[in-house]
Write a structure and sequence with these properties.
single chain, 156 residues, alpha+beta, Aminopeptidase, seven-stranded mixed β-sheet, 4 helices, globular, acyltransferase, transferase, Bact_Acetyltransf
Length: 156
């Protein structure tokens, strides 16, 4: 399994992100969908990674800088046929590691509140994320669960 910074041009990655967006609109009302499209993922404040096994795409994830010291996990997705391979856990650990390297004090995320999002919530909880209130430009929403992870400072 290899994790690499991705330029969002490969057909497999584009297809996975399109699947992700379509699925989010199936599971949540439009005003509660916070998944980013390709154009928004290509912004300079976002780093996007893809996870591969040879030529097979196992998943993806991104890190958005919200403010100095605060990042947001975005676009975590694993293709349905590749779930339970450890790719989600691997890319989340990678994102947390990069956030630490950037000296972020906090890493946050938004995910859905319905039962379909429970596996994602369990993954985030297993990495140390805890529920919190809305952050950044988010507002309270019954379709959203907000989570955060405090990161110890690596500066001496």
């Amino acid at each position: 399994m290899r994790i690499e910074i991705d330029d969002l041009t490969r057909p497999e990655v584009i297809a996975l992100l399109n699947e992700h967006l379509a699925n989010m609109y199936e599971l949540s009302p439009p005003e509660s969908v916070h998944a980013l499209d390709l154009a928004k993922l290509r912004q300079p404040d976002i780093t996007f990674w893809s996870v591969w096994d040879g030529d097979g795409l196992l998943g993806c994830g991104a890190l958005k800088e919200l403010a100095p010291g605060h990042g947001e996990v975005k676009s975590m997705r694993t293709p349905a046929a590749r779930r339970r391979t450890g790719a989600g856990r691997a890319v989340l650990a990678h994102i947390i590691g990069v956030a630490r390297q950037r000296n972020y004090q906090r890493l946050s995320l938004e995910t859905g509140s319905s039962d379909a999002f429970r596996p994602a919530q369990v993954l985030y909880e297993s990495a140390g994320f805890t529920r919190c209130g809305p952050f950044g430009s988010y507002a309270e929403d019954p379709h959203s669960v907000f989570m955060t992870l405090q990161l110890p400072s690596t500066r001496s």
